[in-house]
Write a structure and sequence with these properties.
single chain; about 500 residues; Serine Threonine Protein Phosphatase 5, Tetratricopeptide repeat; two-stranded antiparallel ribbon; disordered C terminus
Length: about 500
């Protein structure tokens, strides 16, 4: 065409070529052809705006829209132009510019158009993070629309769902059906994802089943949300079972799936399950992700296999501070404190910033094997950094001193720091080990807290002081103080099961 000298402004051919290159992801060629047009059509302008937004160059998309709006080429934006420009506002999370486009659309008489209104609702819902004013704007626009499509309903439902307003999302979901609008896969997925992030997790599973009964398949986002929700709500075995169901439907897991799933393996302490997920990571070629591999290090640590964790760590091409923290903590909790300290030194030499988690892992490592002097030295070295000692650091040091029999020194430290259950509990436990019930009783009464009260009650019970036990329990009940029950997991062959331990009332 260029060699034949065809005039770019004759016929729609060049505009279609602009669209062709843009749709194939060749933005440079598309832009080159577009600049050759003396009078680009709205069709060509729209493709340039859409291509820029699709590539993530949202600012350029809005600049192109602004040029089109000025009418320098004699072409004004149409409903598609506004819809694509609003997508760019979503990409930038810029509700201010979205409002400006809303004003221009209203002045141009295009606000009533369903595609423009849908794009506006979507923009307000996504740019108004957490709901608030953005969601209010979206709802006002939704309520005054004379005609609504399934996309309209889905955008509004998704907005409420993401904001955690599940009650309103459910009302709209049911109202949609009453309006003879059939929910599509995106609608169902928005509802499932919303309930999966909420404590009312049973509704997410019920919706998942209902969606399948309607002949629709959940998308990857919904599966990920449900898997992560099950794991987060302590239903680890169900999360692992759901992964198999997901794969059976032909949905390929991604890094988000694995990130939601790996904590489930750690919670039930199943090395076999951890290895199975590890194999899946490699088969799905997800092992190059630093977040996935770091989570894998953590899983092997929690499943009691520091050797597997270290092999994963050593093979990682990219590491971050979280990766080092996970490995330092793993060595520490398995009594390999020398390796923890050596890895800490390597972490600093390689320029990774240490944080409060790093020091918690190190101090915990010293506590596990009773390295008092080393632990105190690490604790004092925190003063040379920007990391402020927190309650976990103090609890580690108090526990370390108590186990070494240095109770007076530990008590002096306890009195100087902010009171917290973990600190009081560590001190009371140390007193119990060394038979210093008198000191524990003084500390528990002065400092209070559920952990101290429970340990005090246990010490009274061991000494046969049942009336004192009853007084402590009654005091706890009156103050609404309770201790979370312990949970243990047992794995035999291919079955894992958990049980809770409850105190007697």
């Amino acid at each position: 065409m260029l060699l034949s000298g065809i005039d770019p402004d004759r016929g729609p051919l060049y505009s279609k070529l602009v669209a062709l290159y843009a749709s194939c992801g060749d933005g440079e060629s598309s832009a080159l052809l577009f600049r050759a047009l003396h009078k680009p059509t709205a069709f060509a302008w729209n493709w340039i705006i859409l291509a820029s937004a699709f590539r993530g160059d949202h600012s350029r998309a809005l600049r192109s829209f602004a040029q089109m709006l000025r009418g320098v080429t004699g072409v004004r934006p149409n409903e598609r132009s506004f819809a694509y420009a609003l997508k760019a506002c979503v990409g930038l999370l810029d509700m201010k510019r979205g409002k400006e486009l809303h004003c221009v659309a209203t002045a141009s008489g295009l606000e009533p158009d369903v595609s423009v209104a849908n794009a506006l609702i979507d923009m307000y819902c996504k740019c108004g993070v957490g709901g608030g004013v953005g969601l209010e704007f979206a709802r006002r626009l939704f309520d005054k629309m004379p005609e609504r499509s399934v996309v309209t309903w889905t955008c509004m439902i998704s907005g409420y769902s993401c904001a955690g307003n599940l009650e309103e999302a459910w009302v709209l979901f049911e109202s949609m059906k009453c309006a003879s609008i059939v929910p599509n896969g995106f609608t169902w997925n928005a509802m499932i994802a919303g309930y999966a992030r909420n404590p009312e997790f049973g509704s997410a599973l019920r919706l998942l089943k209902e969606m399948k009964d309607e002949g629709l398949e959940p998308d990857l986002v919904s599966w990920n949300a449900v898997v992560a929700g099950l794991s987060r709500n302590g239903r680890s075995s169900e999360a692992l079972g759901l992964l198999g169901e997901m794969i059976a439907t032909g949905i390929r897991p991604n890094a988000v799936t694995i990130a939601g799933l790996l904590p489930a393996c750690g919670k039930i302490g199943s090395l076999r399950k951890g290895k199975e997920v590890h194999g899946l990571i490699y088969r799905a070629e997800l092992h190059a992700n630093v977040f996935t591999e770091t989570a894998l290090v953590d899983v092997y640590s929690k499943c009691g296999s520091p050797g597997h964790a270290r092999r994963v760590f050593d093979r990682m091409e990219v590491k971050n501070a979280t990766t080092y923290n996970a490995m330092i903590g793993c060595h520490g909790k398995h009594g390999e404190v020398e390796l923890s300290i050596a890895l800490f030194g390597r972490m600093r030499r390689e320029g990774f910033g240490v944080d409060e988690v790093t020091y918690t892992c190190l101090l915990s490592a010293c506590r596990h094997v009773g390295l008092v002097d080393e632990g105190l030295e690490i604790f004092r070295s925190m003063k040379d950094t920007e990391v402020e000692p927190g309650r976990e650091h103090y609890a580690c040091i108090v526990d370390l001193l108590c186990h070494a029999g240095r109770l007076e020194e530990a008590y002096e430290l306890v009195k100087k720091i902010p009171v917290h259950d973990s600190v009081v509990g560590a001190f009371a436990a140390g007193c119990r080990v060394h038979g210093r019930g008198d000191m524990a009783e003084i500390a528990a009464k002065e400092l209070g807290g559920p952990a101290g009260a429970v340990l005090l009650s246990n010490m009274y019970a061991e000494g046969g002081r049942w009336e004192s036990v009853e007084d402590v329990r009654k005091s706890m009940k009156d103050r609404g103080v309770c201790k979370m029950p312990g949970c243990s997991w047992v794995e035999e062959k291919k079955l894992s099961d958990g049980f809770l331990t409850f105190g007697k009332e």
